[in-house]
Amino acid sequence: MSMLEITDFGKRFTIHHLGKTMPAIEHINFSLEAGEFIGIVGKSGSGKSTILKSIYRTYLPDAGEILYQSDRFGEVDLAKLSERQILYLRKYEIGYVSQFLSVMPRTTCRQLVTNALLEMGESEEVALMEAEKSLAHFELDPKLWDSYPNTFSGGEKLRLNIAMATVKKPRLLLLDEPTASLDQQSKVKVREIIEKLKNKGTTLVGIFHDIEFMDGLCDKVFDMQTRQLTVAKEAVGYES
């Protein structure tokens, strides 16, 4: 049974001031098993992020199904779940890393990562210890741990975003350009965590413009242009 199966998925956006509805993507089909990693590739504007945001239910699909094998609810169509159920899945099962950091104001870096674990039921002692290990892994300067992220650089914010999502060890992790503004050393740290999560059974869907980063990491590649899903080592010649 697939962990995630997307069937005939489509999404439209309405431009209200023009009174127009524009199709963003349509007829998307792919699935992945538990522990697999699918990389989505395609030109800018092809709808890669729209797929991830719809899986996370930031967007509601206009067509098709997004079937997810939940540990709590069994097989569900993410488009049809209640807001309460979606909040549960985001807290305990599905993680999302974007290029942008959106967090509660006046909450320190250390508190944000610690809170991610506290809300899952971890003890304060364990949550704090794991948070500090994660921040150290991504080489965020300890001097920043008790600072507010609005003072951070773009790369520091992205590393914090990744730390918050990965420290929870989600069953399904969605990665939307997680290395976009990182230097090579930081990319290596991200790759190490992704490999560790994957080895422990996390299922992943990711978007990367850095094709080299995907080498040996993804099991399959979905090409937005051809709508084809291929084994990663066979997916050559695609554009970022």
UniProtKB/TrEMBL annotation:
<dbReference type="GO" id="GO:0005886">
    <property type="term" value="C:plasma membrane"/>
</dbReference>
<dbReference type="InterPro" id="IPR015854">
    <property type="entry name" value="ABC_transpr_LolD-like"/>
</dbReference>
<protein>
    <submittedName>
        <fullName>Phosphonate C-P lyase system protein PhnL</fullName>
    </submittedName>
</protein>
<keyword id="KW-0547">Nucleotide-binding</keyword>
<dbReference type="InterPro" id="IPR003439">
    <property type="entry name" value="ABC_transporter-like_ATP-bd"/>
</dbReference>
<keyword id="KW-0456">Lyase</keyword>
<feature type="domain" description="ABC transporter">
    <location>
        <begin position="4"/>
        <end position="239"/>
    </location>
</feature>
<dbReference type="GO" id="GO:0016829">
    <property type="term" value="F:lyase activity"/>
</dbReference>
<dbReference type="InterPro" id="IPR003593">
    <property type="entry name" value="AAA+_ATPase"/>
</dbReference>
<dbReference type="GO" id="GO:0016887">
    <property type="term" value="F:ATP hydrolysis activity"/>
</dbReference>
<dbReference type="GO" id="GO:0022857">
    <property type="term" value="F:transmembrane transporter activity"/>
</dbReference>
<dbReference type="Pfam" id="PF00005">
    <property type="entry name" value="ABC_tran"/>
</dbReference>
<dbReference type="InterPro" id="IPR027417">
    <property type="entry name" value="P-loop_NTPase"/>
</dbReference>
<dbReference type="GO" id="GO:0005524">
    <property type="term" value="F:ATP binding"/>
</dbReference>
<keyword id="KW-0067">ATP-binding</keyword>
<dbReference type="InterPro" id="IPR012701">
    <property type="entry name" value="CP_lyase_PhnL"/>
</dbReference>
